[in-house]
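Morning. Coffee machine broken again, so started the prediction first thing and wrote up yesterday's gels while waiting. Chain of 145 residues, entered below exactly as on the submission form.
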Amino acid sequence: MIATSLAGDYPLLNLFWTIAEIFLWVLWIFLLIRVLDDVFRDDSLSGGAKAAWAILVVLLPFLGIFIYLIVRGKGMGERSLKQAQKQEEQLRSYIRETAGSTPGAEGGTGGTGGHVEELAKLAELKNRGDITEQEYQQAKAKVLS
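Came back before lunch.
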């Protein structure tokens, strides 16, 4: 009986508007986080410019985000792509460094014990998806030679 009276007090159209409002708030919070992340990761902005953008976005929430997207929106994607490429290159260089060093070449223990450890490390990198099958085969051939 209580559920029936509650349903009558809140029509279906009001439910749709409530869902739309929640969606817009979540979207705005996502954009706010994305904009603040972009502001503080951009090395070309000075500290004062970063503070000014942060204050504008926080004090004038909707207008500040729209202004930021209009003024600096195109560069957001470029900066994000550059950051992803930088991280990818760092990962690749780390993998090459790790897979390229063998204990026998550096005056380590050498022998089969060192080879087994290196092969185990390579297999772990491949299983985690850090290196491709081709990179694994190349590094394995280098260790075994």
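The CA atoms of residues 3 and 9 lie 10 Å apart. Going to sketch it on the whiteboard this afternoon.
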